[in-house]
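Researcher: Structure prediction, please.
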Amino acid sequence: MEAKEIVLEAMKKAGVPLNAGKVVELTGLERKVVDKAMNTLKAEEAIISPVRCYWQPK
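Model: Predicted structure follows.
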């Protein structure tokens, strides 16, 4: 499973908007890996930000 899939799955399971730090805690991935995955998901418009610095699946 790719990092972006792991990040997206963690966000779906959480059910609330998450910041990158919380995604790191939930997934066990390194921060830079999570940041890269989140940037990819943002570019693909797979995640949205309802509140500044917090993200959730679209």
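Model: The chain has one domain: 3-57.
Researcher: Thanks, that helps.
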